[in-house]
Design brief:
The complex is a heterodimer of chains A (199) and B (81). Chain A is mainly α. Helix content of chain A is 67%, strand content 2%. Chain A is built from nine helices and one strand. Chain A has helices at residues 8-16, 20-42, 45-64, 74-92, 107-110, 121-137, 140-151, 156-163, 167-187, and one strand spanning 112-114. In chain A, helix 2 (20-42) packs antiparallel against helix 3 (45-64). The radius of gyration of chain A is 19 Å and the shape is elongated. Chain B is mainly α and 81 residues long. Chain B has five helices and one strand, in the order αααβαα. Chain B has helices spanning 7-14, 20-30, 34-50, 61-72, 76-80, and one strand at 54-56. In chain B, helix 1 packs parallel to helix 3. Classes of the chains: A mainly alpha (199), B mainly alpha (81). Chains A and B meet through helix 2, helix 3, helix 5, strand 1 and helix 6 of A and helix 1, helix 2, helix 3, strand 1 and helix 4 of B. Strand 1 (112-114) of chain A pairs antiparallel with strand 1 of chain B, so a sheet runs across the interface.
Amino acid sequence: MKKYTVSDSKLVSLYKKGHEEAFEQLVGRHKNKIFTSIYMIVKDECIAEDILQETFIKVVNTIKSGRYNEEGKFLPWVMRIAHNLSIDHFRKARRYPTIVMEDGHNVFNTLDFSEDSAESIQIKKDTHTLLRQLIKELPEAQRQVLTMRHYMDMSFKEIADATGVSINTALGRMRYALINLRKKMQKHNIAYDPNIYPR
Amino acid sequence: MIQTFTLDDAVRYTYAEMSDDEARRFEEALYLDSDLMDMFQKLHSVKGRLENVSIEIEPSRRTVNNILAYSKTFDIRVAEE
């Protein structure tokens, strides 16, 4: 997870005292993660934008009216609001929420993949493209937990809470996701780091 | 006595979701349980590959501006209605 000089908790305190720039920082820090989470459920950018706004309206209302629970962590709290609003969207539409990413309209086709390492262009072109495809091929529940943990920095406890399963179920899904992905990688001859040591 | 760990515990260890003490005990168990070691190595290798690929989508600037504007013009009386 990213480490910031000023904690979320401190920014919330400043925001409660009227410092709007603190709120701007909180939004800037977390908007992508929250937006990605919503988009993965609703699969529609316009709807996801609306739900993101609704989410932050609830955040503003709760904090500014003094109802924010100081004991909770800011991001998991906002993620829960976003998740609930996303699920509500499907309830209203009488549809069952699924994080299906069909061909031609799937999150991994539209998301921007970026590298933060100095890996070669060749790996970026070949391996990363193939990895995206392999992740897409995972069963839905496994793909969901893998994405939430790996790319949204959610803990397994947070994933369990957000998806309404036990932490053991979330862990089990993650294990199967990684093992299945590894098998697929081997099948496609994607190299992986053979230097494995406990931390 | 060596604590028994499950294969799912290997997931928690791989993603650093154990306390230092639990992680130390897990490492002890790792060298005595070949299945656990095998699972850890598999999980760790895939995690390493995935770490080089990140995904991110951004909401529009308009949406972010709407959110910030709402906060600036927030009126508690209206919000409570």
